[in-house]
Design goal:
Helix content: 25-40%
GO cellular component, one term: succinate-CoA ligase complex
InterPro entries: ATP-grasp, ATP-grasp_succ-CoA_synth-type, ATP_grasp_subdomain_1, Succ_CoA_ligase-like_bsu, Succinyl-CoA_synth-like
CATH topology of the largest domain: Rossmann fold
Shape: elongated
Distance between the termini: 41 Å
Protein name: ATPase
Number of domains: 3
Oligomer: single chain
Order of helices and strands: HEEHEHEEEEHHEEEHEEHEHEHEEEHEH
Strand content: 15-25%
GO molecular function: ATP binding; metal ion binding; succinate-CoA ligase (ADP-forming) activity
Keywords: ATP-binding, Ligase, Nucleotide-binding
CATH architecture of the largest domain: 3-Layer(aba) Sandwich
Length: 407
């Protein structure tokens, strides 16, 4: 999960990394009550890069100009994303700029300190410019000073950069982060240092350990899905496509294989969820079966989903868990859409919510009991429940069902 700049700056301020006076702007009229002296810079709060080139960063010197600029930025999509918030920030006279980062190297399984004497560097094409120090033991100020020295810094500026690196590393460990980045770290002619822009990436699997991050993630997810769909899938691991085949798997590999197979067979994949892990913002302890039942209900409430294809490999859930979760889902959903039939103006008053057809592929001897139970399970007449062990057969049945629904 990537934070927006105004959230990053708040974390920087709390941990002691120098940032400019700033103010959150939720509406252009908020600029009438601005507490920062002009001139200021207005920044679009989106996750996309290159917002400056796209026009998402504007320098203004009066309230009238600021309100006009804010109207434009609020209505300016950057890589398809419109900002909900702008950041108004004081202007800073820059003499020199640096790049600093603390990143988790997944190959080394260790944090790495990065530094460069130029901002906006490309990691893949800056091997000669980027300096790095691997934190291979308990962290100490030595690592920060070593990176500053490798960057060629001396004297007061070396001490300032080292102190900021120490605070970045502290934030990195305290919040379970994958990346803390300052780009750029600016230095004035009087040697004052300032983090002009920052980026923070939270480890998704660690979100539940931090209640304040859970709250932030929930708000960000709610805003995101309010624009995209009527169904909230939270931050479940998956893909959110526009087709009519919902796909549920118990691993990234099986999920992507199923998606490709459906596409190659002429089907149109829709929401694809990986149930191996629970939602990263869900702090309650839920079983695999409970996650399955919740996922099925969410997909069934998504009107574009006509068929749900379940593809499970191995022995992730306990024996019997899958079949009971599916049975409970069918019973609960059927009871919700089974009001007495009436006629309104001569038309049938049936509920517009139809239970999607289910195709269940369970591979492995561990699912023998589940397969037998589901095969014998009584289902509503308007529901097709198909249970198979072969993926190709499951995909073929799925595509056939979507075709019949379309007719």
């Amino acid at each position: 999960m990537d934070l927006l700049e105004f959230q990053v700056k708040e974390w920087f301020r709390m941990i002691g990394i120098p940032v400019l006076p700033s103010q959150r702007i939720d509406h252009p009229t908020d600029l009438k009550r601005l507490k920062i002296r002009y001139p200021i810079v207005l920044k679009s709060q989106v996750h996309g890069d290159r917002r400056t080139k796209a026009g998402g960063v504007r320098f203004v010197e009066t309230t009238i100009d600021a309100i006009a600029a804010a109207h434009n930025i609020f209505n300016l999509p950057i890589l398809g994303e419109l900002p909900d918030v702008l950041l108004a920030e004081a202007k800073f006279e820059v003499h020199k700029e640096f790049y600093l980062a603390v990143v988790l190297d997944t190959a080394l399984c260790r944090p790495v300190l990065l530094g460069c004497n130029e901002p906006d560097v490309d990691w893949e094409h800056s091997e000669n410019k980027m300096q790095h120090v691997v934190v291979d033991q308990d962290f100490s100020p030595f690592y920060a000073r070593r990176l500053a020295l490798k960057m060629g810094l001396r004297g007061k500026i070396m001490q300032s950069v080292s102190a900021i690196l120490e605070k970045m590393y502290r934030l990195f460990t305290e919040k379970d982060l994958e990346l803390v980045e300052i780009n750029p770290l600016a230095v004035s002619s009087s040697s004052q240092v300032m983090a002009l822009n920052g980026n923070v990436r939270v480890n998704d699997r660690a979100i539940a350990r931090h209640p304040e991050i859970v709250t932030m993630a929930a708000k960000m997810t709610k805003r995101s899905y309010s624009r995209q769909a009527n169904v909230n899938f939270n931050t479940w691991n998956g893909l959110y496509l526009t087709g009519n085949v919902g796909i549920v798997g118990n691993g990234v590999g099986s999920l992507m294989t199923t998606l490709d197979s459906v596409s190659n067979a002429g089907g149109k994949p829709g929401t694809c969820l990986n149930l191996r892990h629970s939602s990263s913002i869900d702090t309650s302890k839920v079983t695999f079966s409970e996650r399955l039942e919740t996922a099925l209900h969410m997909m069934a409430n998504d009107k574009k989903t006509h068929v749900i294809l379940i593809n499970f490999l191995g022995s992730i859930p306990a024996s019997g868990g899958v079949s009971h979760a599916i049975e409970k889902f069918i019973q609960n959903f059927e009871s919700q859409i089974k009001p007495p039939m009436t006629r309104l103006n001569g038309n049938k008053g049936l509920s517009s919510r139809n239970l999607p057809h289910l195709v269940v592929r369970l591979a492995g001897s561990e699912y023998k009991t589940d397969r037998k139970y589901l095969t014998e399970l009584e289902t509503p007449r308007n529901l097709a429940l198909t249970v198979v062990e072969n993926l190709d057969e499951a995909v073929e049945r799925t595509v056939r069902l979507t075709s019949s629904v379309s007719l």
